[in-house]
Write a sequence for this structure.
């Protein structure tokens, strides 16, 4: 178990430095779950260029290949909740990694569109498991005082994963059209292998252990991630109180569903806000900017595939950097002001992108000016998304519900 199992031999207690190291290890491994699965999103945006050339797929097939991931990941997310209750949070992370590895391997070796789609669907299920279990795991293992700041970690890791996908595309763009997209997709297997190795380091969720009547194991985990033994015992008592008996748990679950199906006025407002912001985050068109940025740049006039992929790296870098800006501003400026800035900025950038492409098509501006305008508009769109609508969607959803 490495340094996670190291204690001060004289007292049996954890030193502050070891305790901090163990926390960082747990959080970094958990973050890799999201980064690894979402890397496939960034990879596909560039790989689709070479897939179309190699397998001669139609535009409709491209759209199905790209869009199917979101639909299938929903199924993975829905199945992940019950699976994590049966197998545990830790091994559900492992299951997500295995399913994703299988899907990525099939896509890498696919000789035709049918097998490519099968691998894509399998990888989508793995991604659904991963993005569902990661926030649950971190919420159950992190101390209350730092839980809020860690809420934005999924969005950070999503951006890092997309950026790594863009960089991978650019790095392997010089290979043949038959080999390039296969290597791009195959590289995505490596982070999920790292997740598998991390399973031998990270502990199980203490809440799940308590639910399985394994209280001593839960106490041992809490000692690793708490500042002192007293805090660990306090957290354990809270978990035991929240978990309750099996009958009480079933009763509370029934009450929760009754409240959701027949909400009060206050809860209805919370649900409208929570569902609404999640919905608008997706229909803002950010996925189109990420997936189809190479196509946008080609329509703008960039002809070289390597230059197109270099431009997408700039998009990924911008998206990642501005999520860090959001982390700095979110507690200082507030949620609503950043949402206003984000949505207004995205609207202006998308309008500017449409205007640039329209002027290029009508030959009213030079090719160089149109290309610069398109790159600036796409980078601006993802930057404004990362400043507000991206991270605040997760933060607000976790803050408004009881």
């Amino acid at each position: 178990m490495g340094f996670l199992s190291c204690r001060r031999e004289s007292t049996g207690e954890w030193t502050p430095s070891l305790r901090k190291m163990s926390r960082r290890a747990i959080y970094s491994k958990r973050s890799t779950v999201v980064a690894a699965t979402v890397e496939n999103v960034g990879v596909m945006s560039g790989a689709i260029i070479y897939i179309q050339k190699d397998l001669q797929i139609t535009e409709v097939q491209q759209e199905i290949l790209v869009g199917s991931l979101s639909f299938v990941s929903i199924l993975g997310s829905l199945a992940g909740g019950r699976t994590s209750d049966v197998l545990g949070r830790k091994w559900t992370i492992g299951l997500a990694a295995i399913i994703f590895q299988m899907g990525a391997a099939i896509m890498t070796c696919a000789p035709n569109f049918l097998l490519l789609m099968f691998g894509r669907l399998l990888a989508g299920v793995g991604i659904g498991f991963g993005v569902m279990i990661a926030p649950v795991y971190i919420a159950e293992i992190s101390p209350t005082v730092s839980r809020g700041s860690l809420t934005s970690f999924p969005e950070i890791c999503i951006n890092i994963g997309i950026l790594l996908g863009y960089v991978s595309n650019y790095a392997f763009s010089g290979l043949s059209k038959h080999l390039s997209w296969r290597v791009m997709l195959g590289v995505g297997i490596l982070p999920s292998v790292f997740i598998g190795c991390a399973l031998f380091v990270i502990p199980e969720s203490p809440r799940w252990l308590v639910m399985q009547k394994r209280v001593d194991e839960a106490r041992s985990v809490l000692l690793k991630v708490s500042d002192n033994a007293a805090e660990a015992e306090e957290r354990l008592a809270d978990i035991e109180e929240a978990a309750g008996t099996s009958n009480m748990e079933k009763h509370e679950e029934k009450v929760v569903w009754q409240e959701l199906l027949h909400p009060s006025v206050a809860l209805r407002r919370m649900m409208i806000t929570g569902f609404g912001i999640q919905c608008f985050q997706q229909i803002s068109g950010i996925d189109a900017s990420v997936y189809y940025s190479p196509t946008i740049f080609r329509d703008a006039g960039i002809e070289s595939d390597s230059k197109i992929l270099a431009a997408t790296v700039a998009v990924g870098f911008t998206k990642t950097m501005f999520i860090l800006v959001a982390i700095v501003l979110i507690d200082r400026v507030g949620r609503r002001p950043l949402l206003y800035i984000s949505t207004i900025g995205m609207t202006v950038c998308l309008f500017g992108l449409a205007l640039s492409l329209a002027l290029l098509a009508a030959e009213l501006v030079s090719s160089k000016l149109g290309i610069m305008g398109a790159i600036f508009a796409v980078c601006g769109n993802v930057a404004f998304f990362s400043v507000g609508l991206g991270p605040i969607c997760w933060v607000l959803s976790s803050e408004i519900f009881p």
User: Anything to note?
Assistant: Residues 16-55 form the longest helix (40 residues). The chain has a mean pLDDT of 80. The two ends are 37 Å apart (CA to CA).
